[in-house]
Amino acid sequence: MLDLNRLEVLSPVGDMDRLHAALDYGADAVYLGGQMFGMRAAPKNFTAETLKIAVDEAHKRGVKVYLTCNTLPRNNEIIHFDEFIENAVNANVDALIANDIGVFSLIRKKAPDMEIHVSTQAGIVNFVTAQEFYNMGAKRVVLARELSLNEIAEIRAKVSPELEIECFVHGAMCVSFSGRCLLSNYLVNRDANRGECAQPCRWGYHLMEEKRTDEFYPVFEDESGTFILNAKDMCMIDHIDKLAKAGVNSFKIEGRAKSDYYVSVVTNAYRKAVDIFKADPDNYKLPDWVRNEVFKISHRDYCTGFFFGHPKECRQYYENSGYIREYDVVGVVDYCENGVMYATQRNKFNLGDEVEILSPVGEPVTMKISNLYNDKGEEIDTANHAMMKFSVKTDMEFPKNAIIRMKK
To answer: What's phi and psi for 329, nearest 5 deg?
Structure first.
């Protein structure tokens, strides 16, 4: 039985700016990392002090916070886990995301009331494993990304109805199984299982013959190119209905290392999609403007992963490892007052440019910059200084942190 009240948009958070983006644009829950035991070492992440602040802010907005501890800790690391649990409990996080069985057991022992979500790193691909984690005390399992919708539906049908199912629905795909990769560790001594992946799967590769060290030969999987390990990004914005009906409770967006703009736009798009589905589950139809939003962030070519079976021809992108980026953020709204929009610049734009303003309410609004003023109220032709304050006269009202962007 489909329970619409259990559907959740789960957003990635790498720092306080990205937390505010997720809160402003409609996340039901966020996941984030501390200074240890998280699978993303690149973002700022959260200290014990900032974690408490983040959780307090999220809870004031009715948003849950899940803290990652899904690395594979070595002996010299696991001895610090008691302190990690203590900080999590003191911060009042809603759940811990764990992978390692020892970590799982320590959470049960040290924080018996703490909700545990089993990470996708555990590689759960069948109902027996999912149910056993539930029997051990898990509230939720994050299924492996390699499962089809049919396999997810079977797991849902054969496990306890109280066990929640979470799946990644948007963002970067790892070429290895459930993120268990040693390429980075071997090539540059950066361990992916400690959140330090250098993403060598995105690199171009060549062959070198041992006696011809100055000659490099491209490695071709086919005539299209040499990026043989470079997976496309996942995007399931068109298939929220199928995910929900297969039994997915939580729609997880990848990207704790990505920008607050990414978090804002993708959270907003999936928030709108889920709300549209909940309003009429039997006739889900996504408006074009919502679908278009996921193309207005920096992204690789999209695919639907393994949800509809083996990805076959859509699995890799061979031409290069770069991103498609068609929009720049040129400003962020501070406030609107007496027919004037006050904002802070992010990238250069000029008088006469056409911009688009995205807020959590409704569709993006297109506006031509027909007037432009600096922080002294003087007319200017361009906003060309990073973080400069500017204003525009307009009869439209936008909330704080609405995003002003421009097509490149």
So the answer is: -80, 120
pLDDT digits (tens, 9 = 90+) for 286-303: 999 999 999 999 888 888
Tell me which range, 37-51, 206-220, 252-266, is most confidently predicted by mean pLDDT. Answer: 252-266
Judged by average pLDDT, the poorest of 14-18, 230-234, 253-257 is 230-234
Q: In whole angstroms, what is the distance from residue 72 CA to residue 85 CA? A: 16
Residue 51 in contact with residue 62, Cβ under 8 Å? no
Q: Is 291 helix (H, G, I), strand (E, B) or coil?
A: helix
**Averaged pLDDT, 265-280:** 97
The DSSP line for 88-118 is HHHHT-SEEEE-SHHHHHHHHHH-TTSEEEE
| DSSP codes, 255-302 | -TTS-HHHHHHHHHHHHHHHHHHHH-GGG----HHHHHHTTSSSB--E
CA distance 142 to 250: 9
Structure tokens given for 298: 């920096």
Helix (H, G, I), strand (E, B) or coil at 19: helix
